[in-house]
Amino acid sequence: MSDTYDLAVIGGGSGGLACAQRAAEYGARVILMEPARLGGTCVNVGCVPKKIMWNASSLADGMRDAVEYGFQIGGDIAHDWTSLKCKRDAYILRLNEIYERNLNSRKVELLRAAARFTGPHKLEAGGRSIDAAHIVIATGGRPLVPPIPGGELGITSDEFFELEERPQRIAVVGSGYVAVELGGVFAALGSKVTLVLRGATLLKDFDAMLGEAVLRHFVEAGVEILSTGHPAELKRAADHTLELNLRDGRKLNSLDAVLWAIGRVPRFQNLHLQAAGVEHDMHGYIKTDPFQATNVSGVYAIGDVSGRIALTPVAIAAGRRLSDRLFGGQPGRYLDYENVPTVIFSHPPVGTVGLSESKARERHGDAVQVFNSKFVPLYRSMTSHKPLTEMKLVTVGPEQRIVGLHVVGPGADEMLQGFAVAVRMGATKRDFDDTVAIHPTSAEELVTMK
Q1: Which residues are catalytic?
Q2: pLDDT tens digit string along 379-395?
Q3: By Cβ atoms counted within 10 A, which residue in 29, 99, 280, 379 is the most buried?
């Protein structure tokens, strides 16, 4: 006999939880299947614990600056990594428990088991057979390890959160979000960091100004940069340290750790998609239309497994809108993937929304006009180290509609959310110019830029 549900959600990450709970609020009978800790990547090995580590590393930066603001801080700044890890992990466990209580309060059935398809609308999980009118795949992704000799000796972002001690010398291989964020944490807390880049710069999927600025900040912070570096082998030396060999003969010796930050792949290998007839693309991402629907009626995919923008708020928004449409009487409801804001928690942070300058020119040609600003923020008036804050507005047409907004500098993470609303609403450069500035702030530069 099969148990029958209105909605079955495979995966208890941010997207799956949001979708399941919203559907239950509309009165749907919902089951969610997840064998691991609730919250997925974001809560357990991503956004939340990462931000805690970024907060710690930002405090380290602030303590160094405090001396130049007149504070008396004697000796070297010491940090207890192990103590922070214990406190951080305890907080994450509390979040796991909160998520389970939230499911219970909304009467979402939680099945602690992995699910697999046995037919288009049939699943098997934990020895049970489950039928559902609607099935949502929200299984997320996993970090890649390069297929090179000794690749397993390195760690990924998952294992970063298992480190009991901070490595003294580490190589971070990659140039995207994870490499920039975790490399910055290690450097600020005192590790000797080498960034190994496949190309020549960082954050290549973003506006070029952002990658160039972050790279300069890394160099100023004493991070070693190896460009056009392609790992060939990782091996353990006689003294138990690691040696990373690159294809061109360059070597990095005496490493305590190597962190692979070379991308992520969708996690669906054990779902038996073929039993349902669900299609995926050549990269393994499940194909979906704008309404998150797969090629099989009644089967949907949200979050990282769908190959859309791999951000927690995106998965949450997609999951909620899907349930709004299926159970909330909102037939046209779906997530618009244009103008999605995002922040990279580098040192200093990066905020970006909309089109890069190059993408805008590809789409709009000569109708693009760009405004730039570089300045030393007031905070740095009292410090000997004076990294620049940089901003860019990308506009289109005679009305100068803002289609891209990019910031790197202290406070970029917090200032972006409000400006993202303006960009999404179609604000123009004149709208920004007509907004009274808040002084003295860095954000005021976005409404006074010439």
Answers
A1: 439
A2: 999 999 999 999 999 99
A3: 99
